[in-house]
Amino acid sequence: HEAKLELPHILVLIDDPERTIIEPLSINRSSFHQVYSTPLMEGGGTVTAWRINDEEEFGRLADRFQALLEKQDTNDPLLFAMGDGNHSLATAKSCWQDIKTGLSKEEIAEHPARWALVELQNIYDPGIVFEPIHRVLFSIEHQSFLDALGSFCASYETKSLLSIEELDRYLALDDGVQRFGYRDEERFLLFSLKDPASSLAAGTIQHVIDRLTEQRQATVDYTHGEEVTLRLGSLPANAAIILPDFPKSAFFKTVREEGRLPRKTFSMGHAHQKRFYLEARTITLGNAAF
Question: What is the pLDDT of residues 40-51, one digit of tens each?
Answer without folding.
Answer: 888 888 999 999
